[in-house]
Input
Amino acid sequence: MRTFTLRATLLAATVLGGLHASAQSKTIHVDVAGTLPTLLTEEEKTTLTSLTVTGSLNGTDLNVIGLMAGTPMYKQAAFSNGGKLREIDMSGAHIVAGGNPCPGDVGQTIPVEDDVVPSYLFAMTTELYTVALPATAHKIGDMVFSNSNVTSVTLPTALDSIGHFAFQGVEMSAFELPASLRYIGENAFNNCWKLETLTLPDGLEEIGKGAFAGANNLTEISIPNTVTKIGEEAFKGCNGLERITLPATMKEVPARMLQYCSSLTSVSLPDGVWRIGDGAFYGTSCAVEWPSNLQVIGYEAFGSYMRESITLPESLTTIGPRAFSSSMLSAITIPAGVDSIGECAFKDSKIKTLNLSGNLTTIPAEAFAGMTLLENLVIPEGVEAIAINAFDGCSGLTDISFPATLRGIGEQAFRGCSGLTSVSLPEGLDSVGRGAFVYCYGLEEANLPSTLTKIGSQAFGGCVYLTTVRVAATVPPMIDTFTFPDITYDNGTLYVPIGYLDVYKNDLEWRRFNNIVDEIPVGLNNVLTGNTPHGTAFSIDGRTVGENFRGIVIEQTADGQWRKVMRK
Output
């Protein structure tokens, strides 16, 4: 018979030694199932500390054993204080169906089945320390040893299934599961915080949700290739885990599987893995060896990730919401194939250098909010929309390059980007949302394109140093009283297209500017003749562009001449 022993602490062993010296023991053979209660005296039921049982046991017999072990459910069901049983050896017994059902959770009873250790049999007992289960049992039910003081268990060699919460909270340091085992239920060994060594047998097929969560002292685990299903949170909170070998059959890393495994140094993902589940590596610092076809990184998969660098695989297409939020990453390059980034994907991370994918069409809400160390931002061509709060709070940002494909900037997209001193929005842009650049305290200049039709309320609210606003639109964009701060209206200068001075002076809102000057050329024909502020540059279609624009520009050189220049 293959057995395992759950090792007690030295102190517990010393205490048990004293107990065993004065133990009252008895060996009983039960010829007829259901007769064990008649083979014990009433005194023995409450005073025996060691019992060996052979023969056939049904529900009636197991009820007596549960009561003798002081299991709370059995004590409650029998209206008795229970017994003092410290050791029970049932290895020579055989569980058969029938007899009285066993008590389960509140208001429930559990019929006894052939070769199944019934649920709750020894749950929460403080009396029992050593158990040998029937050698022929193939299943351990739910909660059998949950939160008990059991420290030594001999498992059946025929065992193929361990139920939910079966050993939850049991203080054990090492054990070996039998080769016959195929299924480990949900939370079966949850919070077994003393567990140090674990060997999973070849032939195991399924590990349930949270099966080993909270096993803080477990340092290494190898999952056999026969395992085809691993539940969520299987090893969550195993903060002593340093090494894990995943099965070659794995297709997806389950949600929160390794969450808070803070000692994990590296993980090699099998080639078949195409998705990393939600929160799978949350709170870890492990280096990841990517599979060849990884496509999806799920919600918070690397949230609070403690490493400073990571190289994402070129096969990646989707980065989920909050995937790297609050991480320590200092730089990130989004692979070219990524066409979807979730909300808050990199929010509050430590990123200084950001390279975005050219396959993106939208920068989602709060995707890069709170990245206070980011200094330069190039939004790639193809991006059409920047969503609400996308770069909110990026206070270190000093320079932004916008793409010609951009059509809309969402509400508060750049709120609190106090390091910006100038923004030049691209031709083709239609709208700037409410509060888009609110509290950009360092902003001194805003260049707005001819295509702009609407600027939301408070779009430049709080930009108290904004003194220069250039609008290339011949039709004044829609604004309201609070689009710009009062100090800008009072002391700033509004530059408008040549010949459209009266149009802006007669507009209900734009006329609030005390200083309006028509100095912006309309189209290329006016570039060389217009009274343009020194340093202004234009694209070949006549739109104003900023310093970071790349391509052919017409700009005024130091000698006062206008020349066509290629910016690379």
The two ends are 76 Å apart (CA to CA).
